[in-house]
Predict the 3D structure of the following.
Amino acid sequence: MNKKVFHVLRVILGLIITASGAGVLFELMPMPTFSSTSANEFMKSLEETGYFMQFLSIVKIACGLALLSNKFVKLALVVFMPVSINMMMFHIFLDFASIMGALMIFGINISLLVYYSQDYRAILKIK
């Protein structure tokens, strides 16, 4: 694929995760309501911890800003991967009806990791 396509994907992912992290952290948008009771109960439990949603928001904002600024992109993609995997798992097991957003984010994250795969080879070598 063209280098410009990956630039656009990096910016799109950066915008999405920065905006969603800031929206939750600064209470700019309400927590979404899901079609399944289990999904809503799970999200409510995470909110009731008193720390998890704020922590997750800070991680999303940090990774998003790294992607937008084109600084520490490869690190941000690795740090954000468990978040995007968990988003997919949440929707697969608790709210499959609204999986499209998580699927898009996961797909972009994977695509960018593959694009930069040469840069990860040194840390993935078995010694």
